[in-house]
Design a protein that fits this description.
Non-ribosomal Peptide Synthetase Peptidyl Carrier Protein, Chain A; mainly alpha
């Protein structure tokens, strides 16, 4: 029995690490923020919470982001990681349905584990230290700044590959992304939070790694039309699902704890503006995609 318990704990640890890697592939930086909330409420990191109680991890997302946004994010940071580590591999849509229905035991059978769900709030004291939150926010802000810089670089390179209004839209998004990165970095500095792009956790083949690869491809020249279509579609989906709006929602909550009311009022207004900009970026990228691929020929991709 002792050997079985050790094996089970070893399997859980291994699965939690795999889940963490999958979450980082889809949401670098956001994974760190989710860890803050998970530690405060349950005393475990988000990957472990997701493994031992998928329904509680899902509810945490809903509590933090609201019903619509929480469910959208749940596809990437709950259902897909669990579906990937299931034995055999499952459809993430099936897993998402089970999570929403609170069927943790059925998911555990898919994973081949038996675990006990963590109790609520036992980790609040451990995660409440300002120093710990500052480091975590530093990682999240570092990822946010890095992603904005990569978006700016990519959209700037797009402008030489299209003509007309599409180029104007890409220039606009690139300019705003640069401004966002500078604002986020400035806020961090003013609060004594260290921002270092090198501390952003990046998984090979993950979201940030993919952005870097796209940027390198564009540095060598414009993409072929089919490849450009795939890249633009990818960016449109990521702008919507994993944009800085997600970081802004959580940062507003965390910043309220470390600044006075007047300072917070100013920061809240700035972050709300960035979140609004990000929503507009998602809309603009989708509309450019629809316009470029409406069947009307243009050089080199159409406008």
């Amino acid at each position: 029995m002792h050997s079985s318990k050790v094996t089970t704990e070893s399997n859980i640890h291994e699965l939690a690490e795999r889940i963490q890697r999958e979450i980082c592939r889809y949401a670098p930086g956001l994974a760190t923020i989710l860890n803050v909330h998970s530690w405060k409420r349950y005393g475990v990191d988000f990957a472990r919470l997701l493994l031992v109680s998928p329904s509680k991890a899902y509810k945490l997302l809903i509590d933090v982001y609201g019903n619509d946004r929480g469910r959208l994010l749940a596809e990437s940071v709950v259902a897909k990681p669990l579906a990937t580590v299931a034995r055999p591999k499952q459809s993430y849509r099936v897993v998402l349905r089970l999570v929403e229905e609170g069927k943790d035991e059925e998911i555990h059978r898919m994973l081949g584990i038996r675990v006990q769900a963590p109790n609520s709030r036992r980790g609040r004291k451990a995660a409440g230290a300002l120093a710990h939150e500052g480091i975590t926010l530093g990682e999240a802000l570092s990822c946010a700044v890095l992603i904005e810089k990569l978006f700016a670089s990519i959209y700037r390179k797009f402008t030489v590959c299209v003509t007309g209004m599409a180029g104007t839209v890409f220039t606009y998004i690139a300019d705003e992304s640069v401004i966002h990165s500078k604002i986020l970095a400035s806020i961090a500095v003013s609060l004594g939070i260290i921002v270092d792009e090198n501390i952003c956790p990046i998984e090979p083949g993950g979201f940030v790694d993919r952005l870097r690869e796209i940027d390198r491809q564009l540095a060598r020249g414009c993409l072929e039309k089919d490849e450009f279509s795939k890249v633009l579609c990818f960016l449109a989906s990521k702008e919507e699902i994993l944009g800085e709006e997600d970081y802004m929602r959580v940062l507003v909550r965390e910043l309220r704890k470390v600044v006075d009311d007047k300072t917070f009022d100013m920061l809240e207004a700035v972050l709300a503006s960035i979140a609004h900009d990000e929503k507009n970026h998602a809309v603009m990228v989708r509309r450019v995609y629809e316009r470029l691929y409406s069947g009307k020929p243009a050089s080199p991709y159409g406008t």
